Amino acid sequence: MFGFLPFILSAVLLGLGLRFLAKAFAKHEPANLPHGSMGFPLLGETLGFLKPRRSNSMGSFLQQHCSRYGRVFKSHLFGSPTLVSCDLELNTLILQTEEKLFHVSNPKAMHGILGKFSMIIVSGDIHKKLRNIGYETTATLTSLIVYFLALHPNVLQHLKQEHNAIRINKKNSEPLNWEDYQKMEFTYNVIYESMRCGNVVKFVHRVALQDVKFKGYFIPAGWKILPMLTAAHFNPSLHEDPMEFNPWRWTTLVLTACSFSKDIDLSWRLPKTW
User: Fold this and answer.
1) How big is the chain by its Cα radius of gyration, in Å?
2) Hey, what domains does the chain have and what are their CATH numbers?
3) What is the pTM of this model?
4) Of 94, 164, 245, 260, which has the fewest beta carbons less than 10 angstroms from its beta carbon?
5) In this predicted model, what pLDDT tens digit does every residue of 140-192 receive, in sequence order?
6) Where is the secretion signal located (predicted)?
7) What are phi and psi of 93, to 5 degrees?
């Protein structure tokens, strides 16, 4: 029995040490941060955040934290104190003000794995050039479209009808032109819905270059923030039956910053406090 005493004492001392570190770190936190949990010292909540989940789901970690703390909360992820944003307007602000208010800041391990010129590592002009010649996300989206069409034959049939209606007015050898592509409204709806349900990019890593205040949220300079792009895609207040693949929803849904995570101009509503 006494042989277990060293292990018990070690466990107690370790627990006390971790609790001391947690309190010491909490004292140095900036004021007015969003609510949240920093998890275990050093490890934080990274394991829970990285828990596998379906691509058409926010996952239990985000659902539980948003329900408890709100759509923007603090945590400790990938070795750094971090803010997690499931707020679409804040996420759009972050993406629209890159190199002005926020900067790409991936974990160091990703640099060694992906290389310093990976498209998700670089920023600024280099990122734009790589994005313009990129093909991987396009190939992934094409695969997703094929997948969803196979599951929803009624959507495929409607897509064929739209294409046949355009082709019937063309000569046999006459190619499609830009005006023809612009008439493919339902085709665009299928693309948007596949992007929404497939979630090719779930989140990105950013760091605040200066103190930012937006919608009552305070983001301290130097803090990392993760805009969760999936949050808007499965938000029931933005999309009716968000788990359902329904391209027709885009027929009446206006493509704005309140409905989809795209690069949309938000200059008219940028905060005046940064």
Assistant:
1) 23
2) 30-129+200-269 (1.10.630.10)
3) 0.70
4) 164
5) 889 999 999 999 999 999 999 999 999 998 888 889 899 999 999 999 999 99
6) 1-26
7) -60, -45
